[in-house]
Amino acid sequence: PILASAHDNGCICLWSTQGNLVKELLPFSKYPSVPLTALCTDISTKMLLAGSKEGHIMCWSIASFLEDPQNSKNQIKEELCWRAHSNEVVALFHEEEKNVVVTASIDGSVRLWHAMDGYYLGYFGQPRKFELSDIRRLILPCDVNNFPTIIKEESKHVEKKKFEYPLMLDRDK
């Protein structure tokens, strides 16, 4: 068994039951790291989902890693990132049989998303029924304007290089 913890620096730590750090994950994103506020997995623990303070949902494939955490070939791969809410995500739930993710925000909204591609399916309290089979029409909630981002295999989190720039006083300027 592996335990997961979400942190203010945007990092997810995976721990052994003995308390040893097994792996540290940083989301691949064009946005700076923000505090993570919610975590969940599907029942078969193939996917790990995290929600952020800024309303993003990130999804990792963890099945091969959990089969053999010591094997360096079995990596955790971030597959998907999308903006689910304009405010903090406070709860996440993955329903594996229907292949949907339910998200809840601090603003009181509860939304339904297609788990494999982050497509918006609707919100709880809407007048129409959820149409789970029709994901062809790409719609977004009124407060979200970014489409889901599928993260390619070759995408890697780029470390920021440190450069040294000495400060020099130029009195003429």
Give a description of the structure.
This protein is mostly beta strands. It has one helix and twelve strands, in the order ββββββαββββββ. The chain has a five-stranded antiparallel sheet with strand order 4-5-6-7-12, with no helix packed on it. A four-stranded antiparallel sheet has the order 8-9-10-11, with no helix packed on it. Strands 1-2-3 form a three-stranded antiparallel sheet, with no helix packed on it. A hairpin with a 3-residue loop joins strand 5 (47-52) and strand 6 (56-61). The N and C termini lie far apart (62 Å). Mean pLDDT is 79; it is low at 154-163.
What's a quick, concise take on this entry?
With 173 residues, the chain is mainly β.
Which blocks of ≥5 consecutive residues have pLDDT under 50? 154-163
Query: What structural category arises from helix and sheet content?
Result: mainly beta
**Count of separate DSSP helical elements:** 1
Q: State the order of secondary-structure elements, H for helix, E for strand.
A: EEEEEEHEEEEEE
- Strand arrangement, major sheet: 4-5-6-7-12
- Give the tally of β-strands: 12
Rg computed from alpha carbons, rounded to a whole number of angstroms: 19 Å
Distance separating the two termini = 62 Å
Strand count, sense and barrel status of the largest sheet are: 5 strands, antiparallel
Sum up the overall morphology in one term: globular
Q: What percentage of amino acids are in beta strands?
A: 35-45%
Helix content: under 10%
How confident overall, as mean pLDDT?
79
